[in-house]
Automatic annotation (TrEMBL):
Keywords: Membrane, Plasmid, Transmembrane, Transmembrane helix. The chain crosses the membrane at residues 21-40, 87-105, 111-129, 141-159, 171-188. It comes from the Bacteria. This is Uncharacterized protein.
């Protein structure tokens, strides 16, 4: 998907190389975080590093390390931040689709939730393809907002989700915060493009 998105871009090779490095870095840090959290287990059974990972904490650490890597590469090569965000949105939507399709294939519970999520993600990807056709700068922020809101609503299809605050799960709260931040960012970006807050 990223190769398709970057067609015609002059920096295509650089973006794809950095994106691939970021993916492998994330994977290594996530798997390696098991060593940070459970060093005794790894020392007594080194093979456990192959079978286990750092869980949710490991994912957060891997995401922070990867974001730092992308920021560092971007600052050195002066690449477009908007393009990185756009690529991140494409990558997230593609990965989300594959994730829910795999859960459907393996027969996980809440098949209605996984089907609806995969369907929503397909629609958003098609919408991105259509809206950015022939465009070099397209921002997928609006699609990311709809993705976040959609996930908040679709999570109500999971009856046994752990309620964290009011009637929302932790994942729903995170998606709500993401939608609010992305909406604010999109609004500020629109204002800036129109010539600043007074223009």
């Amino acid at each position: 998907m990223l190769q398709y998105r970057l067609r015609g871009s002059l920096e295509r090779r650089i973006y794809l190389s950095d994106a691939a490095n970021a993916f492998w870095l994330w994977l290594l840090v996530w798997k390696g975080s098991f060593l940070i959290f459970y060093p005794i287990d790894v020392i007594t059974q080194p093979m456990s590093l192959l079978y286990f990972d750092g869980g949710e904490r490991g994912r957060w650490i891997a995401s922070l390390v990867t974001a730092s890597y992308i920021w560092y590469r971007n600052s050195k090569q002066n690449l477009s931040v908007k393009m990185w965000i756009d690529m991140g949105i494409w990558f997230t939507l593609s990965g989300w689709l594959v994730y829910h399709l795999l859960l459907l294939i393996t027969g996980e519970e809440s098949s209605l939730y996984h089907t609806a999520n995969a369907g929503m993600t397909v629609l958003l990807l098609i919408s991105l393809l259509v809206s950015q056709k022939g465009s070099d700068s397209g921002s997928g922020l609006n699609h990311a907002v709809w993705f976040s809101i959609g996930n908040v609503l679709l999570s109500f299809l999971v009856a046994d989700r752990p309620v964290w605050l009011l009637s929302f799960s932790k994942q729903q709260i995170i998606f709500l915060l993401a939608a609010a931040c992305l909406t604010g960012w999109s609004w500020l970006d629109e204002k800036q493009q129109k010539g600043g807050p007074h223009g």
